[in-house]
Amino acid sequence: MNATRCVWILSIIICVARGHVGNDIGQNQKEQDTSADNSTESLSLVTAANREFAFRLYRSLAANPDSQGKNIFFSPVSVSVALAALAVGARGETHRQLFRGLVFNSTWLSQTDVDQAFQSLFEKTKKASNEVTSEGTAVFMDNLFKPQPEFLDTLKKSYFADGFNVDFTKSSESANTINKYVEEKTSGKIDKLVESLDPTTVMYLISYIFFKGKWETPFDPDLTKEDLFMVDEKTKIPVQMMNIEKRFETYRDQMFNTSVLHLPFNSSHSMLLLLPDDMAKLENAISAAHVTK
Ligand SMILES: *[C@@H]1O[C@H](CO)[C@@H](O)[C@H](O)[C@H]1NC(C)=O
Ligand SMILES: *[C@@H]1O[C@H](CO)[C@@H](O)[C@H](O)[C@H]1NC(C)=O
Ligand SMILES: *[C@@H]1O[C@H](CO)[C@@H](O)[C@H](O)[C@H]1NC(C)=O
Ligand SMILES: *[C@@H]1O[C@H](CO)[C@@H](O)[C@H](O)[C@H]1NC(C)=O
After folding, report:
1. pLDDT value of residue 130
2. What's the stated role of this polypeptide (predicted)?
3. Which atom in ligand 4 lies closest to the alpha carbon of residue 218?
4. Would 151 disulfide with which of 89, 266, 278, 283, CB 3.0-4.6 Å?
5. 106 lines ligand 2 (CB under 6 A)
6. Global model pTM greater than 0.90
7. How far apart are CA 184 and CA 64, in angstroms?
8. CATH number given to 221-284
């Protein structure tokens, strides 16, 4: 295998019953533009917040009873992007809660700062990567729900988000529209994101990432053979394992008794594999600061 494919998809359903919309979402309010000369600072604040959010989200997913003994697969930055895009249209307490959840400190960051920071992040990652990467956000809105044009403009400009109108009362038709869109954007990898939609849905916000990278040092497919994989301390299962002999960067973290392997892609991206002696200890304590060191 000389390529790894990861498709991360995340969907956030905003299922607001008709009639409850309006107070907090989509109202018109001009944000003061104070950020022209300090966009670099906003960018680093937003990046740091996204990192912190990623580990908080991981901890809360890992602690969830439903994920015990299962794999957790998620793209934290996609969640940050989707919620930050949602915050564009939010006001009042809703906006405060979104910012708090995203670890954005409103003393230092306005929504405009956040929008611009994401815009420059997207522009940077688009330039930097030579893999087949596709990521984006889309908003599907019910025909009866009229968002403010400023909301859609900001989504398009800063979050590169597409906006569509659908009729959610026709739930299989609207599900088809969403599934077709995602199928096209993920090169056919995900063809059924939604099964059926609640007919009272007014807005459906999706965020997708498609990533296909080549290893810097490809694995030889002839060396792939079956071996035993320990799912946990007691369970061993046979799986096909890739094999390679080469020098790679490794690191032994003494604080968490964890071995780290750095597998670079043929680009600026890499995969970090962490093998802890004690999973729970690592899960409870790992933070952005540990990964950057
Ligand atoms: C940007 O500048 C304005 C005005 O000088 C200030 O109020 C705001 O806090 C600054 N934002 C950041 C992220 O530094
Ligand atoms: C935001 O920053 C201010 C000033 O540094 C600090 O006093 C406040 O506690 C911060 N708020 C949060 C929620 O971290
Ligand atoms: C790491 O392993 C060593 C040796 O087995 C042990 O003494 C130490 O307590 C462990 N540290 C942690 C944080 O588990
Ligand atoms: C890595 O990328 C470079 C240029 O981007 C290309 O020439 C090279 O063949 C690639 N190597 C592999 C192993 O794909």
Report:
1. 58
2. Major thyroid hormone transport protein in serum.
3. 13
4. 89
5. no
6. no
7. 32
8. 2.30.39.10
